[in-house]
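Q: I have 156 residues here and want to know how they pack in 3D. Can you give me a structure?
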Amino acid sequence: MMTKDLSQYQQVSAHGGVAASDPHQLILLLMNGALDAIAVAKGHMRRGEIAEKGANVSRAISIIDGLRGSLDHEIGGELVVNLDELYRYMGQRLLQANIKDNAEWLDEVSGLLREIKDAWEQIPPEARKVSRENLVAETGESVDESADSKRKLAAV
């Protein structure tokens, strides 16, 4: 009964947090969710609870894949390329940790994700408001038009 109540509380808390969040805060919620899933998976790993460990590792991988999918390759430049590669590596490492039952690899991914999260938290509020609309206002060209122009130049 207590586990069910806790689970319901966590779901309501998570949904409330998402509803009240800006895009910057949503990324932090996802990062925290992945870190929580990894920590829970590590506990299951230590107790030999294979199915529960696998479910939580899968949850962490899915969240990290979501973070990876949220990257905007059209405007992010080298930073996005690097984050994409790092998120891909973290997903692969989590899969390996699950298969090999290696808690150190879970810790490695948690450490990497914490570093990204710490950097994300340091972004000043005024810099968080950069959006596609701001880029259009600055360049006078939509991101899609800019990307089309770059593709056309690359084809020449």
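Q: Anything worth noting?
A: DSSP finds seven helices and no strands in the chain. Confidence is low (pLDDT under 50) at residues 1-10, 141-156.
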